[in-house]
Design goal:
This protein has 5 helices and 7 strands, in the order H-E-E-E-E-E-E-E-H-H-H-H. With 210 residues, the chain is α+β, with helices and mostly antiparallel strands. The protein has a 4-stranded antiparallel β-sheet with strand order 1-6-3-4. The chain has a 3-stranded antiparallel β-sheet with strand order 5-2-7. The longest helix is centred in the middle third of the chain and has 36 residues. It is elongated and about 70 Å long.
Length: 210
């Protein structure tokens, strides 16, 4: 999947100059969303140092390791100016976007809030799915297991799309969400349709019991 994405990509370069006029070491964060891979070249002791981010880059190879964020940070010494070069790769179907200066405290706060909210959402779906699995084992009602599998499929699809699935389960396989998300929603649709087929049979059973 990654090889085919590389063949269909287009490349642009950006040059950004930074000057730190303060007496303290300055830190700049750059938001690199939109590209499949962004490579940053900045001055180091032995020429240029290289950092990467983007959905084609494994989590271990990213500059800032946040599941759904594509960020890079640069430290500049006091009273120093540097020039940074960005190599941006885009899929031909993607909309071009520039590198943006990011607010570190705001990003970390948003990420923390997002983790709490999405963790509660994923946890709620998981609890409901496990509850229906328990009902199936005790009541032997087929609709319960179909509903549980539907919820697990939806949960997994959202997890893959949020970026946290990549961070938690497949950090060394970037780009897997391209195939995982459609498969997850397809399985969710299948189990949802199977629930609709099981429910009429249950209604007949309940009518006989009455």
């Amino acid at each position: 999947m990654i090889d085919s994405l590389i063949k269909r990509s287009k490349v642009f370069w950006l040059r950004i100059s930074i000057k730190n006029s303060s007496e303290n070491i300055g830190e700049w964060w750059f938001d690199c969303h939109g590209s499949s891979q962004t490579t940053m070249f900045f001055p180091g002791r032995n020429g240029f140092s290289v950092r990467k981010t983007g959905f084609r880059v494994p989590l271990s190879g990213r500059d800032v390791k946040l599941g759904e964020e594509y960020l890079m940070n640069v430290f500049v010494k006091p009273d120093t100016a540097i020039t940074i070069y960005f190599r941006r790769e885009f899929l031909k179907i993607s909309k071009l976007s520039a590198v943006k200066l990011a607010n570190k405290p705001a990003i970390l706060e948003d990420d923390r809030s997002s983790r709490y909210l999405q963790g509660a959402f994923f946890g709620l779906l998981l609890i409901i799915a496990l509850y229906n699995l328990l009902l199936y084992f005790f009541v032997k009602e087929k609709s319960n297991i179909h509903y549980a599998l539907y919820l697990l499929s939806v949960n997994f699809s959202y997890l893959a799309g949020s970026g946290y699935g990549f961070e938690l389960f497949w950090p060394n396989y970037p780009g897997n969400f391209v195939s995982i998300i459609p498969m997850g929603w397809a399985s969710a649709g299948f189990f949802l349709c199977s629930i609709r087929k099981v429910i009429p049979a249950n209604k007949k059973l309940f009518t006989k019991m009455e």
